[in-house]
Amino acid sequence: MSSVLFSYYNKYPIVINSLERPFRFDEMEKEICIGDLKTKNNLCLWSWALFEVSSRGHAPFGSCVSSVRISGNRLSIAARPGLSFKAEFDKCYIFDDNNLTTENDILENKEPLYRVFDWMNVRRGMRHRHDSLKTVDNFIKEIYFYKSERIDGNHDRKDAVAVSYLTENQLHEFSHSSTMARFKIQSVMKDAGIIGAKAGKTKEGKQKKYNVRVEPDYRHVVNMHKRTYRDTENVKFLDMSPKEVVDRYVGRG
Fold first, then answer.
1. Reduced 3-state DSSP string for the chain
2. 118 with 165, same domain?
3. Segment 84-94, tens digit of pLDDT
4. Which pTM was predicted?
5. Are 59 and 14 contacting, i.e. CB atoms less than 8 angstroms apart?
6. Interhelix angle 2-10/242-249, nearest 10 degrees
7. What are phi and psi of 239, to 5 degrees?
8. Domain of 89?
9. What is the distance between the alpha carbons of residues 99 and 236, in angstroms, rounded to a whole number?
10. Is 214 exposed, middle or buried (CB count within 10 Å of its CB: 0-12, 13-18, 19+)?
11. Same domain for 217 and 117?
């Protein structure tokens, strides 16, 4: 997202070497005014900025790039399906090294950290007042609720997605699997007072309700790992958040 905003504000061409889009519930700290758009939502901001950049003709390879190699001041771009391109540049600013090969020396290579999204179909406990829940743990740190897309029409039933931050080892442990995510999500929802549908009455006449039940839909894993590289005269690596880009270039575009 930062690279798209950087391209928009500076009117630079962009090579999109990763198709990872912002998470639909990520937001800026404050509302951003950019062009004719006013929003806090990262996905909305990214979509708008990418459309503007593409409309200017500054995303010549679109979303077809599969890998990029940088040698000196030259780009070698492999694109789908089976295409290749060459380009030269005076300055190249890099935000993301996914699918990238470069001659720049690696100065620091930290242990990978992954942002994991567990999308859940809620079977019991779909109706409640909560938009999100948070915990103090990195495993199921946040749970977001959204209008279920499995059900047509206007309704108030919600499904859920949970966000975790896991190491490489944790990612492959059963204790941090989708199955265990399911159990923890159910527990957090129950603690928040979310319950299922009515289930008859007790002998004393009190209303009984089913416990919350969710089922894993799919898991999406995003590698947050960032290496630190040595800059060269032509190639510079930038580590700027979307907020930092907006704060630096607000007023341009």
1. CHHHHHHHHHCCCCCCCCCCCCCCCCEEEEEEEECCEEEEEHHHHHHHHHHHHHHCCCCCCCCCEEEEEEECCEEEEEECCCEEEEEECCCEEECCCCCEEECCCEEECCCCEEEEEEEEEEEECCCCCCCEEECCCCCCCEEEEEECCCCCCCCCCEEEEEEEEEEHHHHCCHHHCHHHHHHHHHHHHHHCCCCCCEEEECCCCCEEECCCEEEEEEEEEEECCCCEECCCCCEEECCCCHHHHHHHHECEC
2. yes
3. 999 999 999 99
4. 0.88
5. yes
6. 20
7. -120, 80
8. 2-107+227-249
9. 17
10. buried
11. yes
Beta partners for residue 145, in sequence order: 160
How far lies 44's CA from each of 11, 27, 33, 128, in Å? Answer: 20, 9, 12, 26
Whether residues 175 and 237 fall in one domain: no
Rounded Cα gap, residues 36 and 70, in angstroms: 36
Quote the number of domains for the chain: 2
CB 223 within 8 A of CB 112: yes
pLDDT (tens digit per residue) in 158-200? 999 999 999 999 999 999 999 999 999 999 999 999 988 777 6
Please give the Cα distance from 174 to 180 (Å, whole number). 7
> Comparing C-alpha atoms, which of 20, 22, 24 is closest to residue 161?
24
Task: Count CA atoms closer than 13 A to 17's CA, side-chain side.
Answer: 20
Do 49 and 117 belong together in one domain? Answer: no
Domain match, 12 and 72 both: yes
Same-domain pairing of 161 and 191: yes
Q: Are residues 121 and 191 in the same domain?
A: yes
- For the chain, give the number of residues: 253
Whether 13 and 50 map to the same domain: the answer is yes
What residues of the chain score a pLDDT lower than 50?
none
